[in-house]
Structure formats: structure tokens, C-alpha cells
Amino acid sequence: MRYLLFFFLIFSSWITGFTNPRYQWISDNQFLTIIDGNLVQHNLPSNEKKVVVSAKQIQDATGVVSAEIEDFSLSTDKTQVLVFTNGVKVWRYKTKGEFWLFNLKTGSIKEIGMMFPPKSLQFAKIAPDGNKVAYVYNKNIYVDDVITNTTKQITTDGKNKVVNGTFDWVYEEEFNCRDGFRWSPDSKSIAYWQADATKIPDYTLVNLTDSLYPQLKRVEYPKIGQPISSVRIGIANVGGVDVKTKWMDIPGAANANYLVRMEWTPKTNEIIVQQLNRKQQETSIFICNPLNGNAKLTYVDYDSAWVDIQSSWDSDYNDGGWDWINEGAKFLWASEKDGWRHIYKVDHLGKEQLITNGDFDVMDIVKIDEAHEYLYFMASPGNATRKYLYRSKLDGSSKPERISPAAQPGTHTYSFSPNSTFAYHEFSNANTPPMAEWITLSDHKGINNTEVVDKAIRESKKSNALEFFTVKTVDGISIDGWIQKPANFDKTKKYPVLFYVYSEPAAQTVKDEFYTSYNPLYNGDLAADGYIYISLDNRGTPAPKGRDWRKAIYRNIGIVNIRDQAMAAMEVSKWSFIDTSRIAVWGWSGGGSATLNLMFQYPNIYKTGISIAAVASQLTYDNAYQERYMGQLQETRADYIKGSPITYAKNLKGNLLYIHGTGDDNVHYQNAELLLNELIKYNKQFQFMAYPNRSHSIDEGEGTTQHLSSLYTKFLKANCAPGAK
Q1: What is the number of domains present in the chain?
Q2: Which of its termini does the chain have fewer beta carbons within 10 Å around, N or C?
């Protein structure tokens, strides 16, 4: 999923064993959710709650005293629930663990995959008929028959670098693909991905601390210019004695294209597949016949920069899903072909019709309400820092109508009940802590006359509040930013500035949210200690400002984003209360790369920098991410070099702290040593910290977080002294 943004790890939960929304509805006014490790039924509008499956039941079943329900899914008839517990991380997320099937009518409990070791199953799913559960174990797919208590192995060729029903490293990281199989509507077949990474070279991680001799961990990691995995989709029959797989005959070489989405079509025995070419500029939709494998091209979309897959901008689709209307005759599709991200409906012949319309971006799809002929979505025309609920008629005949109240400026999220009567509404802004309430959608009022959000806004503290601003650079680019001023701010004095930067297509940092200026590494209070804290969103960040804003960075990572940041910082430096001798910048991952580039390319602006887990050379990162935004190496090699921090390391003048984990499987430690060599070559003095065996998040091991925070804080204070002058 691109360079992993650090704040994602802090404020988001780990994705777990299977994909499900926060709420799973059992009727129009009843849903199940997890509270304190228990599975709880919640009734609306009374707000009555009762525990359906308790953590104690899980603990008794597993024998693990601390076991809790971490995730769950319901059977089609709502009589059974499959719970996930004892999850363990695979790369970024907890996708391995244990699954238990509860019968909500009888109270019986059944372990899934009991013949396999604990904490070893992935992505278990109940078949639509409720009689079987499929899952992945050790790169193969298995099915447990819960009636006969038998287990059938569906695939047998999963081994080494060949995986069935899940994905290799780069598909998980860059396409949000983890769960790699789907039950057919009739429960007789399973459609699944098979990824063959045998042609991808291994990257070797070296562990020097856990044994007398080095331990080696090899990860198939396709760097720039290397082959991509050969991926195909097959459909296996699971009902017969002999399990056979029919492979879909999708045009295009399997090792030259990505297959990024796949689902069964409603009320048919066909599957729909999204293919993305290696350049990621053209995407094709195929409908495949499971009997003969024929793939019919239905729809094609193209962008001269890159095509965004749906999960890259709407996290509800992280592990699949497809939006169908008109009983499966049409599906929804997002495209930027008119300069904005809009939603179209497309039929099986590829004929499209625009649903949303106007100079704005659709930020999320919230709900398709066919009964009332509305599409609900998130957007924020005119203010890229906020997020509001809108709706448009499904036939495209209406102008977008804002649903979020005008008196609630900030960032909203919603989860709807099946009949769109109720919605779970979450809200925050820079001054208002996160608040949530159940509302009736018709009037956007809290059920039982509650006013949780309105009350929170009225009571929010305004002292030292975050302020938003816009500066125009010498290039004529308007840049949004936020500023947190010191306590007891005196505009007649001069203060040090700390810039927080990310700057790449994976993340927007300037948002009207409560935690937007939170710095988890600073040991203390930046405002109380007399620092001005600022963040800016340059062109190329995924702000809802239109296609041209986001894709100006194509073939220009390390150039356009860096110049925008620096030119905006120059405008900020003109403010009378800015001490231009004390300007610092920091970032993690893509932000770490930006920090290096800012320190090296604009050393007269930035005097101090803290760079964490940075890509020093773009030639070292994975091909799926880097080729998407920078083009293919054989065509654009000069752009890679031009945008890499290492190219400009000889220009370092200020104070640099560089930090990297030696066990980082995402942005490899190789980047650190390449950068160190270049700085040494030019006799550039700097401070460096390597964290042994730590991953990209640098959060493993006793004392690590405290040590990192202390290091960060001490370096900042020593080289960019706090307080007014």
C-alpha cells in the first residue's frame, strides 16, 4: 500500500483475519458489533445491547486466558457467526489466527481447521448455504464441512513462492489484496487467485542479534525493473469427489498485468475481474465464464498518468467488494476522465452513464439506496481539508445534495443501516474531539433526541486551536496548510518552526480533524515548549482538488512535491514571527524521503531535519508503487535519479538525523547504507541511528518507542532550540 504512512499505524486498527464492516446487520434495526472483546447485539432506536458471544466463551474454547473476539462474519441466513481470535501479523496486518463457528440458535461452538496448528488459518468464510467454511492454510485452500465434520483440500500446489487464496508481498502492500478467494452464490465453487512469484528475486533481511550466527529471512520483493508476479484466477468445484480448477482465459500475459479485483456477479454463475496493465495507465473489466474460462472484455478506462484502483481512495474496498445495481445488470465505476473523480454506472456491454456531476471529487462511496434511488457519497467542494455526506439520484438527474449539517464544519464519516433509516455518524474537527452518535438519516438528528456532536462543537476549546491557511507560491500554486502556534503566542517575537511532511500520493496531512497535528514522537508539548508546528499539502497529495492536482506528480516524485513544499515554506518564512534560522522538518517513510530532499535541495531554507525510514534511492523500492507514479525504468530512468534524495546528498549544510530499522521489509535498510556512503563521500557530518531488526514502523522490542521518542526530541531541541526570541 505504498510507503506506509506512520500515522496509519497509530490511529488505525490492524486489518484482521477477514474483511467485514464495523457493523453487520441482522435486520433493518439490529446489528452485531464488537465491544470489549465481546460480540454484542445492538437494537435501534432503543440502544439496547446484549452480549451474543462473550470473550469468556472464546477463552474457554481456545484455552487462552487473554483471547478476545477480534473480528467476525455472519452466515447468509444470520444464524451462524464465524469469529476470529488470537490474530498474528503477516507483514502489516493480523491475517493469521484462529476461527470458531458459533450457532446463534443452539449456542454450539465448532473449531475451524482443528487439524492445523494454532494461529495458522487465514480468511475463513462461511459458504452461502451455511454448511461449509473455506480458509487458507500454508498457501493452500481448504474446506471444512460443518455437517459431516470432514475437511477437503481444494488446492495442492501452494508451496515456496506459489500461493493460493492469498497474495505475495507487493499485492498486499500496493493493491490492498490479502483475502484471495470467494465463494460462489450456490456454494458449489470457489474462485481464487494464484500468485506465482518464482521469478521475483529475494531480498534478504539479516538478523544479527537473536543468535550467535546471522539469521537470514528472504522475502520475494520486486524492485524497480524486476519481473512482477504471474497471477491467474481459477474456479474450483468443491462439491464433487475430485476437485478440479478451471483457469480463466484472461487476455494479456499473466506476468505483465495485475489482476487487482475479482467478485462473483449477482444472480449468475460468472465472475467479474479488473485487470491493470503494468504501467497502471489502462484498466480493463472482464466478465468470465466459469465453465469454459472465456473472458469477455466489458469496459476499459485509461489515464495518461495512472488509474487509481478503488481501494486506494475508499478503504471500504480494501479486500474486495463490487457495487451492483438493477439486480446485477449494472455496476458502479469511478473515473477521473472529466478531470474529477466521479461515479458512473456501467452495464455489461460497457455503456456508461454519469451519476455524480460537478467540479468536485467523490471521496468515498457510503451507500447505494436503490429503494429511494439515491447514491450517498462523501465530498467537500471548495474545501479540501473537510469531508461531508452528499447524495445524488442514481439516474444522474439531480445536482448533489449536501446532507451533513452546515453547522458541523469538519470531517464526517457514516455507516448506514440496510434500509437507510439509521446511520452511525462520526465527527471531529481541529477543535472538537472525535464524537459519534446514531442518527435518523431523514433529519440528521440523534436518535432519542441526543445531540452528541452539536454539544461537542459548542463545548470545544478554542485556546491554542489549530488554524488553517493557504499560501500562494511563486509558481502560482495555492497550498493548504495548518499551523499550531505556541502557547501564549506573541506575534512581536520570533519562533522556531517544525514542518511535518509526507508529500506523496499515499496521504494527505492537512485535514480538519482533531488529531491532525498530533506528533507522537515529541516527548512533551510542542506548543508549550514554544514551537510553531506546520504541515502543508503539495500537488500530488490525494486531496480532493481534482485529477490534475493529484497527478501533477507523475514522473516528478522528489521534484514537484519538494518544490511545492519549499516554495510554500518560503512564503511562511516571510511572516514576521518566523525565525528563519530555526526551521526544522521531519517525516516518516515517504515523508522521510521528502525530508531528505528538502534538506539537500533547499539547504538554505531547512536548517534541521529528522528523516525516518526514507527511500534514499527510488531505484530500491518496489516496482508496483514506483512504476505507478514514475513510469517504467527503461523509459524514465533519468526521472528516478532526478527525484532521489541520494542525488543531492552532497548539498547537505544543516543538522540531519537519519533513522532506519535494519529489519524493514518495506523500505529496505539498504537505503540507509547507500545514503550513508554518499554523505561520507562528501564529508557531510550527520547523526545516524539504526534500530536492529525493527520493521518499517520501528515499534518492536522492549523500550523502542521510548528510545525513538527521546532521540527525536533531544535532537530537535539541541539543533532547533525551542522558545521565542
Answers
A1: 3
A2: C
Angle between helices 590-601 and 560-573 (to 10 degrees): 60
Q: Considering only CA atoms, which of 687, 686, 698 is closest in space to residue 660?
A: 698
**CA–CA separation, 529 vs 80, rounded Å?**
55
How far apart are the two ends of the chain, measured CA to CA in Å? Answer: 43
Which residue, among 658, 657, 664, 656, has the nearest Cα to 698 in the 3D structure?
Answer: 664
Three-state SS annotation for 288-309: ECCCCCEEEEEEEEECCCCCCC
> Which residues span the domain enclosing 172?
156-316
Bridge partners (DSSP) of residue 233 are: 193
d(CA 696, CA 461): 35
Residue 498, strand partner residues: 533, 584
Residue 624 lies in a domain: yes
Q: What is the pLDDT of residues 405-424, one digit of tens each?
A: 999 999 999 999 999 999 99
Cell 512564503, residue? Answer: 571
φ and ψ of 679, to 5 deg: -65, -40
**What helix, strand, coil percent values describe the chain, rounded to 5?**
20, 35, 45
| Cα torsion angle, 380, 383, 384, 386, sign | negative
Last residue of a domain, one of 129, 153, 177: 153
Tell me the pLDDT tens digit for each residue of 235-283. 999 987 788 999 999 999 888 999 999 999 997 789 999 999 999 999 9
More confident residue, 61 or 378: 378
User: Same domain for 116 and 171?
Assistant: no
Among left, alpha and beta (phi > 0; psi -120 to 50; other), residue 389 is beta
pLDDT value for 267: 76
Query: How far, in Å, CA of 34 to CA of 193, rounded?
Result: 30
Question: Is residue 197's pLDDT more than 50?
Answer: yes
Check whether residue 665 and residue 553 sit in a common domain. Answer: yes
Find, among 617, 616, 621, the residue nearest to 665 by Cα.
621
pLDDT of residue 296: 96
Could you tell me if residue 420 is inside a domain? no
148 and 42 together in one domain:
yes
Rg (the chain; Cα; Å)? 26
CATH number of the domain where residue 568 is located: 3.40.50.1820
Same domain, 164 and 147: no
